[in-house]
């Protein structure tokens, strides 16, 4: 392996690792995605520092060209990330719909408050234990 490819892989892996940690630190990326990106950065740095490990792994998995293994793993990684993001979008759409329905219900209740039922109270005041009636709460504006 020539030194240019070595340094390119090392710098690329360090950039991915640094950006992943920074996004997690700023709370832009959370959960499984954060772990996936940090692991990807660590793998890139590891394979850049030890390029023979990639050759060993590809021969162990019976892949003829180590670059094919890298490309296959990259496509697989992007597919998993895409599926994770799609499930997150679906979850957020359901949450947004539920919140919009709650806001609509609250808005309707605020515009048209329910009328108090005098038959349910028995009278407008509140009865005490001795049978005396005290005035009820003031009406809402």
UniProtKB/TrEMBL annotation:
This is DUF2304 domain-containing protein. Residues 106-141 are annotated as: Disordered. The keyword Membrane applies. The lineage of its organism: Bacteria, Bacillati, Actinomycetota, Actinomycetes, Micrococcales. Keywords: Membrane, Transmembrane, Transmembrane helix. Signal peptide: none annotated. Pfam families: DUF2304. It comes from the Bacteria. It comes from Fodinibacter luteus. The chain crosses the membrane at residues 6-24, 36-57, 69-89.
